[in-house]
Write a structure and sequence with these properties.
Layout lengths: L6 H8 L10 E7 L15 H9 L7 H11 L4 E4 L6 H15 L4 E5 L3 H20 L6 H8 L3 E3 L6 H10 L2 E4 L1 H8 L7 H5 L1 E6 L7 H20 L5 E6 L5 H9 L4 E3 L8 E7 L3 E6 L5 E3 L2 H14 L4 E4 L3 H18 L7 E4 L5 H13 L4 E4 L14 E5 L5 H8 L10 E7 L4 H8 L2 H4 L13 H14 L4 H6 L3 H9 L3 E4 L2 E4 L18 E6 L5 E6 L3 H4 L5 E4 L2 E9 L4 E6 L4 E22 L2 E21 L4 E6 L5 E12 L1 H6 L7 H15 L11 E6 L9 E6 L7 H7 L1 H14 L24 H14 L5
Parallel strand pairs: 2-7, 2-8, 3-5, 3-6, 4-5, 6-7, 9-16, 12-14, 12-15, 13-14, 15-16, 19-23
Antiparallel strand pairs: 1-9, 10-11, 17-18, 19-20, 21-22, 22-23, 24-25, 25-26, 25-27, 27-29, 28-29
Length: 787
């Protein structure tokens, strides 16, 4: 094995022998190192706790840790936003453990978006308490028991019934997630009354994950939690943490509905980091839909880089967006190593959700110990597992947000105080990826996105109001604070809420908690079942079932592939059988939109840009089967019922005359607008923290509600998720980036990197790339916020 190399040298070796004129590296920059800034331990921290941290190698805390701990200890809600490996756990452990030791009745609640992160934090706290207890060996046994009887305990879907009962009765520090808090704790809060009466702290870890629909649900769960705790006599302080969150104080305030402070100055050390952007070249003699050229896949390029880095001795994580992608990348990297360095084959592995807990722990130990040199992973290792000493990170496709990119990038050089590390973003065949690798400032020079949440969305708010009323009567001041006056009036008129002297109560016979899916939609669920074993593979929201588990759809569960045979929406069942095909599927649907309300509008001469409420009627009409190379195998027709979605959209209209003046003839209107719509959908995640699968679109050369050439981009969630609102607010930035992405793509007439969409209901026909550039250029010229 070669001596490990890092940064630019490691990158140079990976492209050795490549023609400089065709180098896949489109940009490289270096982020400098940083020295640490220390602070004294707060006077209120017990000496034995200080000794416990010392036993773990922490002699003095960093400034941001102490500042955050002081805010929380003084009773202020606080959001800590500093880089990965900046010791955010210590910042909340200080006030929580101190308080639990000083007050024998005090309790704390920890929330994380993943079970893996919660499990990692329990291990950290348990180790700390054990060290603190050891420091008391010379003291009275009763004092030692203070440390060992704080009883941190997981309470999630994997916790068995007996342990849940024990946790309710004895644990003073519960580790859970928003899903279990909603369905398993708040719904039965009377059994937790003692815990809530003494609840002093709530930790919201990795708070940047709470965005979109999930964030809106979580915001209402947290507000319900606070009202229940206060009704029981508690008054908890909320501590939020994140490595990548814009406006952390404002973001926490949006989540809990109360003022919060922020700590953002990172005082931890950091080694030098090299960041490279990598664009795979087009594949020769391989074409996709309608003969479009396609690039080498991000997975294949990532596998080659992973193998190269392993040969160089660089400990590397390679992030992929899907479980299947992870398995394929690890398999291909091992295959490459078998040809060049067979002794290293067993030092590369895959890691993802779906593995048994024992297997995950074994892999985590192998990564930390250096037994594994290269690991392909989903975002399961983006956060949660404390892995130190990694030398390189490969990001196989832009992960959807700047925040997630820096989370993944931050795994490289973790806990290194000197030396170099390397991060490589490998672009997928996608408009946003194409744009970013050619406009590095849009990724590396841009702050992380503000989290988009809308807890006032009536389709999200109303079910939570029913839950809140089931838990405690709703009071007038709460309804006002939650901006829920209209929603409560509607629920009362529907007979679901009853007003009495003490407030609004839930009507008899309604059990609302089970009707809410915290992670996604609202309403019924479709069960996905393996017909050969009757095993439940998972669930999908009924509103998305026809797109994702239609007959013939490929469904992946824990790394295994299944093909759906039948979808029964009446019974809520999707029946599937195991199969390992060499193709993937993508649904195609027809869409019709009617405008129900204009929320806001901006007129710019012959261009009008509007934020509108719409009814979107869509019908799945078929699906494509695509080989793993990207080549389209065939198109299969389906006959599925139509569905209607009430949501929000950003819409723009242009006059036919302005389009013709821009060089787009009437006959080219459909292709030009269609291509511009596809590209805009692909680039909306640049300004809104969403995925392109969270949004949809429609273009037409004459819409019946406007009488003009019109393009819509809409949220794919009932009532909207805030994405269209962000598109309207940042229309100029969004459209300028879309134009640049299409114009900079090296294909001749359109490809998946610019104007083709993997979910187009019309089979990406017609599409006019040149016309789209003209339309987008016209939009940029016409739109001005100063007009």
């Amino acid at each position: 094995m070669h001596t490990p190399t890092f940064g630019s040298e490691l990158l140079r070796r990976s492209i050795a022998g490549t023609d400089p004129s065709t180098s896949p590296v489109t940009h490289m920059s270096v982020i400098g190192s940083r020295a640490a800034t220390f602070a004294d331990w707060p006077e209120w921290v017990p000496a034995d706790l200080v000794a416990a941290f010392g036993a773990d190698g922490i002699d003095k805390p960093w400034v941001h840790q102490v500042t955050t701990a002081e805010h929380a200890f003084q009773g202020k809600h606080v959001a800590l936003c500093t880089g990965t490996a900046s010791g955010k756990s210590l910042a909340y452990q200080l006030p929580i453990v101190t308080t639990l030791l000083k007050d024998p009745n005090a309790t704390a609640l920890y929330l994380s978006p993943t079970k893996a992160l919660g499990a990692d934090q329990i291990r950290s706290v348990t180790s700390l308490l054990s060290a603190a207890g050891d420091s008391r060996r010379g003291a009275a046994a009763g004092v030692r028991r203070q440390f060992t009887h704080l009883q941190p305990c997981a309470y999630d879907g994997d916790t068995d019934v007996e342990l849940r009962q024990w946790a309710r009765a004895h644990s003073r520090w519960i580790f859970t997630n928003p899903d279990m808090l909603h369905i398993g704790i708040l719904s039965g809060h009377a059994r937790w009354r003692h815990f809530f009466r003494h609840l002093r702290y709530i930790v919201v870890d990795e708070a940047h994950h709470y965005r979109g629909v999930f964030g809106s649900h979580t915001a209402l769960v947290l507000r319900r939690l606070l009202r229940i705790a206060r009704s029981a006599g508690g008054d908890p302080v909320v501590i939020a943490t994140s490595a990548t969150m814009a406006g952390p104080a404002e973001a926490l305030t949006r989540l809990i509905g109360e003022p919060a402070a922020a700590v953002t100055e990172d005082a931890s050390p950091r080694g030098e980091r090299t960041v490279a952007l990598w664009e795979p070249d087009f594949l020769p003699a391989v074409t996709g839909e309608n003969g479009a050229p396609i690039r080498r896949s991000a997975g294949s390029e990532s596998a080659r880089l992973l193998a190269d880095f392993v040969v160089e001795g660089a400990r590397t994580l390679c992030f992929q967006r899907s479980r299947r992608g992870v398995e394929l990348t690890a398999r291909q990297a091992r295959h490459l190593l078998a040809q060049t360095a067979p002794e290293l084959v067993d030092r590369v592995a895959a890691y993802r959700a779906g593995y048994l807990a024992d297997d995950r722990r074994r892999l985590e130990r192998a990564i930390s110990d250096g037994e594994l040199v290269g690991v392909a992973t989903t975002n399961a290792l983006e956060l949660g597992v404390d892995i130190s000493g990694l030398d390189a990170v490969i990001v196989g496709g832009y992960p959807g947000t700047v925040a997630s990119f820096w989370q993944q990038a931050g795994r490289a050089g973790r806990q290194r105080t000197s030396g170099d590390s390397l991060v490589v973003l490998v672009a997928r065949d996608d408009p946003l990826d194409t744009y970013l690798v050619h406009h590095p400032d849009a990724l590396l020079g841009r702050p992380v996105e503000a989290t988009v949440t809308d807890p006032a969305n009536p389709y999200i708010l109303k079910p939570h109001l029913l839950c809140a009323a089931a838990e405690l009567p709703l009071r007038e001041e709460e309804i006002t604070a939650w901006d829920a006056t209209d929603a409560v009036a509607e629920l009362t008129a529907e007979g679901k809420l009853k007003r009495r002297k003490a407030g609004w109560y839930l009507a008899a016979g309604i059990e609302p908690h089970a009707d809410i899916d915290i992670r996604g939609g609202i309403g019924g669920q479709v069960l996905i079942v393996d017909t050969t074993t009757s095993q439940l593979l998972g669930t999908v929201d009924s509103g998305r079932a026809m797109l994702t588990v239609h007959p013939g759809a490929l469904h992946i569960h824990q790394g295994e592939s299944f093909v759906v045979d039948e979808l029964d929406l009446d019974d809520g069942l999707a029946l599937a059988h195991p199969e390992e095909p060499d193709w993937t599927t993508s649904a195609r649907e027809l869409t019709d939109i009617s405008i129900t309300n204009v929320v806001d509008r901006r007129d710019c001469g012959d261009l009008a840009v509007s934020l509108v409420e719409v009814d979107v009627t869509h019908q799945v009409v078929g699906y494509l089967r695509t080989l793993l190379s990207g080549e389209v195998l065939d198109a299969v027709e389906l006959d599925m019922p139509a569905q209607t979605l009430s949501t929000r959209a950003v819409m723009y209209t242009l006059t036919p005359e302005s389009l013709e003046d821009a060089g787009v003839t009437i006959g080219d209107f459909p292709g030009a607008l269609h291509a511009a719509e596809h590209a805009a959908i692909g680039l909306l995640p640049l300004v809104a923290s969403c995925d392109r699968w969270d949004i949809g679109g429609l273009s037409t050369n004459q819409h019946p509600d406007t009488g003009l050439p019109t393009v819509f981009v809409y949220d794919g969630y009932m009532g909207g998720a805030g994405f269209a609102d962000r598109g309207f607010a940042t229309f100029d930035t969004w459209i300028a980036a879309t134009r640049d992405a299409v114009a900079s793509c090296r294909c001749e007439s359109g490809c998946p990197s610019c104007v083709q969409s993997p979910k187009c209901g019309n089979g990406n026909d017609p599409l006019d790339k040149d016309g789209a550039i003209k339309v987008l250029t016209l939009l940029c010229r016409r739109y001005s916020k100063d007009d």
